[in-house]
Amino acid sequence: LFPGVRQAQWLTKTKLVEGLPPAVQGVVDNPAHGLQELEERAKHAVSHARLWDTAEVAPRREQYCPVLFENLIHICRLMSGKYPSLSKRMLARNCRIAATWERESILLQVRGLSGILLNSMTPIPPVASKEEILATKEHVLETFYPIAPTIDLQEVNVYKELNDTGQCFGDGYPYSHPHTLFFLESANVRTNRFRPEQLRAKMLMFAFGNALAKAKALHGNDPKVLEQPVVVQSVGTDGQLFQFMVFQLNTTDLASNDGIKNLVWIDSDRNLYEKAQCVPEVKKRVVTKPAGISGFQPDTFKKFLALYLHGTV
């Protein structure tokens, strides 16, 4: 998506809200949850991924990005001792999603691998009140006239309109609710990675796709305003810079620009740390810069953890 999130908003009939919703930010800010107690573990997780996990002088992004993710997820799981309901989660990989909808007489489909997906036995409660949802009626979606909002989308012949939550959600699967999608942009060559704006657009499209497929599985294919909105979160990272997103599907009536809109909250471009000095810098036999991690940002780690905890605390 060349215009990024702006185009994804039009395609998904979504209003953007900057920052995290109060339900998530409240977890970050509340000292009672003890997130600050895990900061030291998070620093070690970064050091392990960037400095200790390999014998190479400097690990490649394709190696340290997945390692960092696994380390952070492990820290999140430690909270299950305090919040037992966190054990009712399952991390699924290589899940495929297919969701089809109509937008101004244009048939659209999002389809493919939807990152690493955290599933839950119970759905995330709506993060916007009914009043906030009703207020979206007044929101005017941005257009790209005279450019078509579908200008750079791949055009294909669709022989079957699929709405499928994929192989992760077979009949009787207990962890049937999508919770959080994780996208790892771990390509070592910069040109092979999504730029942050395009990554956020991808995150929005796949969060929307998972929410729409789930809503249609629950409520059928008829376009309607949902009595119980579907919430799906998304986190994207290249191993240093993080993008956080909470998407709420309020309606499956997507054809026109009128009426209720969907909502997305985005917290953009948050560094977990400023720099990883893999080898010490030495000048005239004196170490001027020791090896280590500098500029660790505890708030970024807390937001990652808060999204994991959301729906439980």
TrEMBL record:
Ribonucleoprotein is among the record's keywords: yes
Annotated protein name in UniProt: Large ribosomal subunit protein mL37
One Gene Ontology cellular component: mitochondrion
Name of the gene: Mrpl37
Predominant location: mitochondrion
UniProt keywords, alphabetically: Mitochondrion, Ribonucleoprotein, Ribosomal protein, Transit peptide
GO BP, one annotated term: translation
GO MF terms held by the record: structural constituent of ribosome
A Pfam family that the UniProt record links to this protein: PDCD9
UniProt-listed InterPro entries: mtLSU_mL37, Ribosomal_mL37/mL65
